[in-house]
Amino acid sequence: MTSALHLAKRFFGALGRAPIDQDQVELVRATLLNSEFALWSAMMPIDKKHSIKVMNRFLKFYPQATATQVRASLLHDIGKLESNLGVFSRVLATIVGERGSRFAKYHAHEKIGAQMLRQAGSDEETCQLVGGEVSDSPNLRTALAALRQADEI
Known about the structure:
There is one protein chain. The protein has 153 residues and is an all-alpha fold. It has one domain (4-151). The chain has helices spanning 4-14, 22-31, 34-42, 45-61, 67-75, 80-83, 87-96, 100-107, 109-119, 124-131, 138-151. Helix 4 packs antiparallel against helix 5 (67-75) and helix 9 (109-119) runs antiparallel to helix 10 (124-131). The mean pLDDT is 87.
């Protein structure tokens, strides 16, 4: 997931200033639980845009996704809220690794996100997918693979 091409696409995509279409926001609101939407709303605009792109790609790769799996696609980066890093700090964190607590939180965003979602009352399947650690269920393993593929923007 941290290939140079992936990072370059994410970086230049982050520089765009176009607002999120209100129809997309309403789709996200209708998809997420209220507590999840509150967390999603706190995300940086670049992360919100990214999450919508990932959801759309996820549904193409895995059209039989359940509602909880689609929620995970929207919330897969929610743990990045804890690091409170901007675009350039994220680039630096990617280059230097887990130095300092904020960079460490950035790198642990999957586990942190799963914890945040458990506290928000999310379905356990959503939490497992966001955390990147799923049970032995073949369905969940397939969904996680599709989510990771969708995140390779």
